[in-house]
Design goal:
The structure is a homodimer of 470-residue chains. With 470 residues, the first copy, chain A, is α/β, with parallel strands linked by helices. Chain A has one domain: Trimethylamine methyltransferase-like (TIM Barrel, Alpha-Beta Barrel), CATH 3.20.20.480. Helices cover 42% and strands 13% of the residues of chain A. The first copy, chain A, contains 15 helices and 19 strands. In chain A, the strands form five sheets. A seven-stranded parallel sheet of chain A has the order 9-6-17-16-14-12-10. In chain A, a hairpin with a 5-residue loop joins strand 2 and strand 3. In chain A, helix 7 runs parallel beside helix 9 and helix 7 runs antiparallel to helix 15. Chain A is globular. The N and C termini of chain A lie far apart (50 Å). At the A-B interface, helix 11, helix 12 and helix 13 of A face helix 11, helix 12 and helix 13 of B.
Chain lengths: 470, 470
């Protein structure tokens, strides 16, 4: 089947050593939803926004870095204005493809080109399942969802805490949560940008987990962070620090403005996309100024709000078009594109399913590399559902099967539709996650690494963890 | 947005007079799932099948027509073998685009090019709704489903009886059902090929309904029939008669082999597609031999069976790939492509929704023109569900919204997800179809036409209807 044309080398040439064929690859080209002229208009308008309005950068070090690179500060305010040449020269250094390294080389993940990577849902405040209902997240739920992420091969990494473990104190939450990621899964995982100390802890812990030195870690990106600008046109201090800290160590920055047409962005899709693009370019430029060539992704999360309820709309034509145009923008800058598998539904019902498949349709058509929230997302992101996670695994396996080409056998599926143990899909999904958790085995971890990890955590806890006054 | 490249004239040039912009148009090109070489291999293998094995044609007139055109009969058997030149010369006459004429010109439907047309489900033996459960079809249910098909603008035509009205005697069923179509909807509708008399009655009734003479009707295709070959490699007598009768009057033949890999077709998808293509080409060739240039469609309905249950699989990767490759074959012959919106689900649940959206995804990617079974299909075709029909209207409206381009405002939606009158989607769907039926008004019909129609039906009933010994 035809390649995307984006990369002219043959498929086999592009598979880095150690990567098995667990990731699906897109054989159909991405689809352009708007013309080259319309795309250029969004691009130029976003550069004009950065030049004339600028961005509030709430971190002093970030402002100093940007000013040293030629950006213009405004005395007495955090506002930074960016010359378009400065932005474009910086963005040009971002790599078009890169590999993230897991502690198990068979779990390395490739971003860019025609590769797709699916991540467990991230950052839900609540989780839910059929038996126990909807509840705020705990470490026990966090761990179970990480185990499920490990168990299903179609899930390639974690993109965030699947649910927030609120019974872990914020000062030490990132230490215990990162340790859980390392012990319970051998796949790639993230660190939150909530102050540079947390980023540094995450980077150090993944170095320990992989059993490598700092120089190797800086050659081999192994941990990612998601950066959300505070639209409109603001980059908060912890987010700016996250960009700096991660880029400095050549780790992955996923720059994702969250722009809702009709809420924190203009009511038209084009206006919201101009804002998305301005914020994304500014964040990516900062990363590239800190370290030219540092791995970044262009994240799109633009949708519209339901004009009756004010709630974000997902899986709608507007959402799909925003996803497609986001992909066109990312391709314009030759940066891997991050998108999501979202829905607004409150139950694991027909609405949850169709909104998710429409999302996935636009993800594949839009040429996304990294699909965050690929499994578990419910209620516009307020809940990670155990049963929805299983439903999404089924959906992702169908997408992977569609993308399996001549040489690749269609991967086996979780079999949610084919199971005969009950007429009710949600109940079948419940049985599947329960059976999967019962059969779960943690991936082997070198005892010396486990010990070094424990010692690091003990030392950091003894020092009081991190400040929580962000 | 870019056109498909299939038709180089501008969009406005191609809109025939009287057609409003009710049909969505594809702005993204169809996606090729296999290479040109692989496609050619299927094409050549199907021609070889027609040359060396041939097709059992169970109607004497059809055999005579084919033999007169150069096909080879086999003494004492119904087997007809087709020289590839004969097949390809005939198929070449099929038009790449055509318009079907409704009695209301605003409801004309365009097939081919980048147009899409969505039809209400056809030929379900059962119907179901939340209140009354699943039951064999009656005329009352048939009428209600035709009314719903009339009410939703995103449904452009009927592709069959939405449910079989079994309380109408088979001798006169087509007369009353066709009269119901004419009275309850001003959109295009079909006639079944169950013997040439029924085709002739349908053609005459649509002529009366449109208030035109026979010559005009022969210039303006106004009624369609679905032809299913009896795989493997057999064309039953009523089906052959349907092709002859409809083509003779320049009415629309939708030639759709139903080939299930692992059931009545080889277990590999490629093998099943060779069989599909052989049967489709033979039927289309017969139509073109009868009347070169008669409007036809290339129908694809190839899937695999679930190897555990033996039931057909829908909305699976195999189904999607078969749909895509069927589209490639139809484009190879430049004939409008007919596909479907199918699912295997037994309830209006997440499975019904995701299988349907995956079907629609392959329909759009596959470049289909005519989407049969677009609304209401359940249980692999055994049931037309009132609530699923509403769910499908929502799905089709999302697809139409995705396909709405710059100049076209996003069409309004039925609002299944946005409604606040209950948390349960199926119950919301129930309220929507009940409200829609309550608000239904039959489209105006000229009293003189109604009278002529009644007289025709009375005369035909007096004559005893049609034979039922097919």
């Amino acid at each position: 089947m035809p390649g995307t044309g984006a990369d002219e080398t043959s498929r086999s040439d592009r598979v880095p050593a150690g990567i098995t064929d667990m990731q699906p690859r897109r054989w159909m080209p991405p689809q352009d939803a708007i013309s080259a002229d319309e795309l250029e208009a969004i691009h130029l308008a976003s550069l004009q926004v950065l030049e004339e309005i600028g961005l509030d950068v709430l971190d002093a070090e970030a402002r100093a870095i940007l000013v040293a690179a030629g950006a213009e500060a405004s005395a007495g305010t955090p506002r930074i204005r960016f010359d378009r040449g400065l932005v474009l020269d910086a963005v040009r250094h971002a790599p078009a493809t890169f590999t993230m390294h897991a502690r198990n080389p068979a779990r390395h993940v490739r971003f860019g080109g025609d590769w797709l990577a699916f991540a467990v849902m991230g950052s839900a405040p609540n989780c839910s399942d059929l038996e126990r209902g909807r509840r705020p997240g705990t470490r026990a739920d966090f761990q179970d969802l990480v185990r499920l992420g490990q168990a299903f091969d179609v899930l390639h990494l974690s993109g965030g805490y699947p649910v927030e473990p609120i019974d872990l104190h914020p000062r030490i939450r990132h230490l215990d949560a990162t340790a859980d990621f390392i012990r319970l899964t051998d796949k790639v995982f993230p660190v939150y940008s909530l102050g540079a100390e947390r980023n540094r802890d995450g980077i150090e812990m993944v170095r320990i987990a992989r059993g490598i030195d700092t120089a190797t870690l800086e050659r081999e990106p192994s941990i990612m962070t998601i950066i959300n600008s505070s639209s409109p046109l603001r980059l908060d201090a912890p987010m700016a620090q996250g960009i700096i800290e991660m880029a400095r160590h050549n780790q992955v920055v996923v720059m994702t403005p969250f722009t809702l047409a009709g809420a924190m962005a203009p009511v038209t899709l084009a206006g919201a996309l101009v804002e998305q693009n301005a914020e994304a370019l500014a964040g990516i430029a900062l990363a590239q100024i800190v370290r030219p060539g540092a791995p970044v992704m262009y994240g799109g999360f633009t949708s519209n709000v339901d004009m009756k309820s004010g709630a974000p709309a997902f899986g709608t034509p507007e959402y799909m078009k925003a996803t497609l145009i986001g992909g066109q923008l990312a391709r314009r800058y030759a940066i891997p594109y991050r998108s999501s598998n979202t829905c607004a539904a409150n139950a694991v019902d027909a609405q949850a399913a169709y909104e998710s498949v429409f999302s996935l349709w636009s993800v594949v058509m839009g040429g996304a590399s990294f699909v965050k929230h690929a499994a578990g997302w419910m209620e516009g992101g307020l809940t990670c559902s155990f049963e929805k996670l299983v439903l999404d695994v089924e959906l992702l396996e169908i997408v992977a099967g569609l993308l399996a080409t001549g040489g690749t056998p269609t991967p086996p599926r979780v079999g949610l539709a084919a199971r005969t143990d009950g007429p009710d899909l949600v109940r079948r999904a419940q049985r599947i996650w329960k059976e999967t958790l019962a059969a779960y085995q943690p991936p082997p971890l070198d005892p010396a690494i486990a010990e070094e990890l424990d010692a690091f955590i003990a030392r950091r806890k003894e020092a009081g963890g991190v400040r929580t006054d962000y």
